[in-house]
Amino acid sequence: MNRAGAYVNNITGNATYQSFRPAPLPPESLELNSDSVQLLIEANRELAKLNTAASLIPSTDLFVSMYVRKEALMTSQIEGTQCTLDDILDPDMDTNVNLDVGDVVNYVNAAQYAIIRMQELPLCNRLLRETHAILMAGVRGQEKNPGEFRRSQNWIGPAGCTLKDARYIPPNVEDMNEAMPALEKYMNEDKRYDALVRVALIHYQFETIHPFLDGNGRIGRLLILLYLMEQQLLRKPVIYVSYFLKKNQVEYYDRIAEVRRSGNYEQWVHFFLEAVRAAAVDAMDSIQKLSKLHDRNLAILPPSKRKIDHVHRLFDYLEQHPIIDIKKTAQALDVSYNTAASAVQKLVDLDILHETTNAARNRIFAYQEYLDVLRKDT
């Protein structure tokens, strides 16, 4: 036993196993060293800069939709999803039966749902369960009680491993049913420590409790974003912390495990603050590049001579859908095929759009410079 919790025996005889019973948050006497305090200051500063920048850029919602998709891709890749950014932006995605793409699309829908729902609900277990139901709808894991906390023991380990071979066994159901209300209370009532330290502890605790049969990692990382927004450190979901966690995936899991092993929360908090700082810097860099690209290309568009300018409308559409085909674009913009084709050709002539197929029919076009910024680290 240590300050993070203790392993407890379950069942007797040959079937006995030990699950982890976490201590409630916050840990006693959390002491950050000078390096961690400096990191905390820097992470808060970078987050504040990002928050300001995100509110000042034109077409904020266009950028937001792409940021949510990038975080969706990163967080799903951590779980082993084999999928690229181009896959989830494919205009034929609705006819694509790729389950990996479905995982990412569901995350986007779950994140958007949770952000809107937070206008009515606090950050609570009900919200997490509702979000989980959307995350798991119609994809792998849909048979594992979407939207419900587990009613049986789960475990973590290599594919196909048994309870006896597990790398980690989360709390048994009884302990989990005590731990989740305690976590909910901590999220909403306890203000000790800086908000970034609190969210580090919250993410660790959620991952340790593992309250769902599947999808815990993705919900746990979404919880980071939701808490940052709930605490008003971010007004828009323009950070992808999974970018850093994916790059340092082995260390990410090892540091969470170290808290359970030794009760050393401090080393985990330090790592988490590094993740937030790096993610904020990276997101800021992307916003600046996308804003410059937006302004530069907007300046070379032909001046509008009509009340409804289809070239400008297509350009706006591209920043949410940087890979397009003409037929679906015409439907989305509610114009004729020929009108959409003419607008696409104008953007090709201006070197904004590039055709990525060599086909007479079903041609695909990409906003390559925009995609190059977003593809980084995916």
TrEMBL record:
The keyword Hydrolase does not apply. The keyword Zinc does not apply. Residues 123-274 form the Fido domain. Gene3D superfamilies: Fido-like domain. ATP binds at E79, H210, D214, G215, N216, G217, R218, I219, G220, R221, Y252, Y253. One of its GO terms (molecular function) is ATP binding. The active site is at H210. Keywords: ATP-binding, Nucleotide-binding. This is Fic family protein. The lineage of its organism: Bacteria, Bacillati, Bacillota, Clostridia, Lachnospirales.
